[in-house]
Amino acid sequence: MLVLVINCGSSSVKYDLIDTEHQKGYCRGLVERIGAVTSIVKHQPENGKNTKETKVIQNHTEALKEILSYLLGPDSKVISSVSDIKAVGHRVVHGSDMFKDSVLIDDDVKEAIEQAFDLAPLHNPPNLKGIEAAMAALPDIPHVAVFDTAFHHSLPPKAYLYGIPNRLYRRYKIRKYGFHGTSHYFVSRQYFKLILDKPSKTKVISCHLGNGASIAAIEGGKSVDTSMGFTPLSGMVMGTRSGDIDPSILFYLVEKEELPLSNLHALLNRHSGLLGLSGFAADMRDLILEAENGDRRCQQAIDVFTYKIRQYIGSYMATMNGCDAIIFTAGIGENSALIRQKAVENMEFLGVKLDEDRNEAAKPGEITRISQDDSRVAVYVIPTNEELVIAIDAAKIAQASDQSPWI
Ligand code: ADP
Q: For this structure, is 148 an active site residue?
């Protein structure tokens, strides 16, 4: 089934057209800087030439039109009719406690996504904009929401409850939700396929290290703990997000600098993390380069980042009583041998023995074992594919729905 996967940010729409039967991408692309004076439109067809143009794209609806007109266009000929697309899969970041699985989108689902705006203010509003735009552009096919939080629904209360009055959990649903669920799910399944074993006994620590970063403890195939929490702001230090900090810092700052809430929000979400620590960049490639040139603060940012990874690995090994495999994925996890090495070096005590040559030789896009043969804990680089998970879920739900073109 041909599924269009859509991932909307506040000023961007990313898409992937995926044939779920053959698990093959036909075309992917990105419309960036939506609403700016000029927007950038990129398309990467599987069998064709990559294109990059600047255009005026005012909103998400225009971005969707642009994408469909490219897919149908005489130059690309990716599809011959919009009816070739049988379903749309939407990435939705926060499903709160309402969605433990992907769902067919209707008015109630849209309302529930809106109710979770407060919980993921950077993500859920543009996700819903994308849903509205795509439903208007493709009204006759099923649209499915796939939630980043869903995989973490298996967390036990001891992992998801915070040490605050229980009535706040009951009244406002304040608890840990966890994110990057589709990625942690995908890479852990890839690992199970590799070892040809049922997940029932296996313990895995999955490190999704991109601009956003989270680490998950997966036992028996189920997420049992993860570093992100009530929102995607907590846990690991990220590109521009602070990750965990002592909450008293906020009271202190409000007093010292008389900052309004909106500034605190921006401070922790957009000006902190690797960017804040280095005072230079959020992008790990830039930080590594500058650190090699002797920049002390860039080096410190890298040290904090890798120290946090080690802390989570150690803590999840303790709470799961061991670990069979550590997986690195996403932009940094898949591409940076340096970060992987710093994250797991000198962990022999915990049964982790990195093979430096294998780590250096790992190629982008390939599954690679980077631990030594006699390492008690296997260490892998496994490329993530969140879009494929979304497409497969959307296809399954579309086929089962009475909106399906087959029924
Ligand atoms: P997201 O999807 O969260 O926006 P990605 O998974 O694409 O992020 O990861 C982006 C991060 O990956 C950036 O910090 C980027 O610098 C980093 N990255 C990509 N390639 C490399 C590389 N070769 N070495 C180090 N970091 C890299």
A: yes
